[in-house]
Inverse folding.
């Protein structure tokens, strides 16, 4: 049985009507014990903007969301302790892409994997805004 990695497209909206999109490919299957790289193409913000970081999260069927890790504007990374030997997060600023590489994946790694931009809030921008069309 393969490890099934379902991917989702996340849309986020910033205040002032800016549209942020994070786009991932469709579902992927990998044989247990093998590696897989998932790419997340971002638009609407720069991967080098010091205000933001891009995170990876996963959700196995019927279970809670699990944070995997992040990559910051300077390229620094952080990981959940129990997953840092399994996953590596990298980025390509020229193509605005953040990638998650999983190694030695097992059936227990079957999940929906999400990329997400870190939410920012300040007194000046705190509030609710209607999502503009992207």
């Amino acid at each position: 049985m393969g490890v099934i990695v379902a991917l989702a497209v996340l849309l986020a909206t910033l205040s002032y009507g800016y549209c942020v999109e994070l786009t991932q490919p469709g579902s992927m299957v990998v044989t247990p014990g093998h590696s897989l790289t998932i790419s997340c193409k971002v638009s609407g913000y720069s991967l080098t903007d010091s205000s933001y970081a891009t995170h990876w999260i996963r959700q196995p069927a019927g279970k809670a969301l699990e944070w995997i890790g992040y990559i910051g504007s300077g390229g620094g990374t952080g990981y959940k302790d129990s997953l840092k030997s399994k996953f590596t997060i990298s980025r390509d600023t020229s193509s605005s892409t953040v990638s998650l590489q999983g190694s030695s994946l097992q059936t227990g790694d079957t999940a929906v994997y999400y990329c997400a931009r870190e939410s920012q809030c300040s007194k000046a921008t705190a509030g609710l805004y209607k999502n503009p069309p992207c």
